[in-house]
User: Which sequence fits this backbone?
């Protein structure tokens, strides 16, 4: 129960941050040239000044900046994200259509990065300064230094064009009506390359963090005591070292949730995935303020939710948090 109270306090403290982020993004966008009506007129091939004035009045863009901000925050209190003039439908509907692709990409990439980063970090720490450590550290450095867009493009060239093992992009095959398990497998096949592109970068970070954490914990007194009692080395690592070494990894998940959302913009653009990242890029280009603010709001909620789960996991791994030790 104490864990939930502590996590609830963190959750409540994030609400002012969320409001400040929305206000900041709203005000920053006011400095950008043009507005939604300008983008609409460009799509229509132009129009007269009277039509532009009427559209600005209809969408409330003729009001002052502070009046527009007040109207948006009041709608947000009623859970109304507004209407997208570019897509011609409510912002909530536009985001709901794009959200599944981003959530699947983030979940798959994070799972891959965490699992293999954990395994490779442990192997590198157990074989420190030997060839496994050198090989794993070198691969981690390569994956970390390699730009994600370049890796994605090279993956398309090799696996989609040359070998023709995997699709080059998209979320699913729209030429065939898949259903049930067949559709699940088709989506999974389309997500292989984007997941590798985004996940390998973060795996490089996790394996370095895990390696350093393992080396630090392996030299602590309670580990030496367990060894002195004759405990098997594998048992020492699994029962005593791993739980303490996981704490920085779990913390990093919460810190990098927002970074991974930002990275999805590049990956979704390279692989033509209909996700929030690509939608955010399109909204900036088309000056669709309501949609962009809706994306920021939903993204911030996702980051808050991830950090809430991380707080619960952290308290589970380290009971001193709940006891106040």
Assistant:
């Amino acid at each position: 129960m104490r864990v939930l109270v502590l996590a609830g306090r963190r959750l409540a403290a994030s609400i002012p941050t969320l409001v400040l982020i929305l206000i900041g993004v709203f005000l920053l966008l006011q400095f950008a040239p043009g507005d939604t009506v300008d983008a609409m007129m460009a799509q229509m091939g132009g129009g007269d000044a009277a039509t532009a004035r009427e559209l600005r009045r209809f969408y409330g863009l003729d009001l002052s900046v502070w009046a527009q901000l007040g109207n948006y925050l009041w709608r947000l209190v009623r859970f109304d994200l507004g209407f997208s003039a570019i897509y011609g439908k409510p912002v909530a509907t536009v985001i709901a259509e794009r959200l599944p692709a981003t959530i699947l990409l983030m979940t798959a990439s994070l799972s891959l990065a965490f699992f293999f980063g954990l395994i490779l970090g442990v192997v590198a720490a157990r074989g420190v300064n030997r060839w496994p450590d050198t090989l794993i550290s070198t691969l981690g450095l390569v994956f970390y230094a390699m730009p994600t867009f370049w890796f994605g493009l090279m993956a398309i060239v090799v696996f989609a064009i040359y070998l023709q093992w995997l699709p080059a992009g998209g979320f699913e095959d729209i030429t065939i009506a898949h259903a049930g398990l067949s559709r699940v497998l088709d989506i999974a096949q389309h997500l292989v390359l984007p997941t590798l592109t985004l996940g390998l970068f973060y795996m490089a970070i996790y394996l370095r963090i895990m390696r350093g954490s393992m080396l630090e914990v392996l030299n602590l007194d309670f580990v030496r005591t367990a060894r002195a009692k004759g405990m098997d080395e594998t048992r020492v690592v699994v029962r005593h070292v791993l739980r303490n070494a996981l704490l920085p990894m779990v913390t990093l998940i919460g810190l990098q949730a927002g970074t991974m959302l930002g990275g999805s913009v590049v990956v979704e653009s390279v692989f033509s995935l209909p996700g929030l990242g690509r939608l955010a890029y399109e909204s900036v280009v088309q000056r669709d303020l309501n949609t962009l603010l809706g994306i920021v709001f939903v993204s911030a909620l996702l980051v808050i939710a991830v950090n809430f789960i991380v707080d619960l996991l952290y308290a589970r791994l380290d009971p001193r948090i709940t006891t106040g030790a």
Observations:
- Residues 268 and 278 are 6 Å apart (CA to CA).
